[in-house]
Predict the structure.
Amino acid sequence: RARTEEERTTGGIDGRSIRSSPMAPKEEPPNLHVALVAEIKADAYCAAPTPDGKSVVLGEHDGPLRAYSTDDASKRLLVERARSETVNCALVANDGKDLWVGGASGDLTVYDAARGTKKVKPFQAHAKGVWCMCLGGNGKFVVTGGADFGVKVWNLNCDVLSASNHHSGAVKALCSFAGDENHPPAIWTGA
């Protein structure tokens, strides 16, 4: 059954509304279908989908991380952080068990993705803000990019495997490719 307008609009965060609406119909590629888009009226700096596709974690400017259901946009507070701990980026790693969070001061914290409790105490990952991160090696490591012009590769225990500071500006985007028989693994960065 199709949801009514009232069902698609729910209560919001701090008086802000959450609105879900179907996308305008367009011709789609054969293996792509977008059924629902949720517009969250919050000061979100990042979004991290869970591997099962059932939730999206949003990191908000003033600290908290909230998990939103992809079914109905219902929300729950996952991690409460101090207002001064701005969340720049987040990702779900370790087969959905860990939530990695990069902060504006260069800190990195790993939380239990289900309970929101700290698994690893916050530590200084970059001299300045952690701007971006991605999974690499088919989920076996995490790559971070920082305002300090650096890129670091971490194992899932938060040990640095590799580091590079060859960029001429803050690293604000990156992605990783696992590679195959014709192409070596690669990390692409944007500064």
Summary: Confidence is low (pLDDT under 50) at residues 1-24. The two ends are 46 Å apart (CA to CA). The first helix runs from residue 5 to 8.
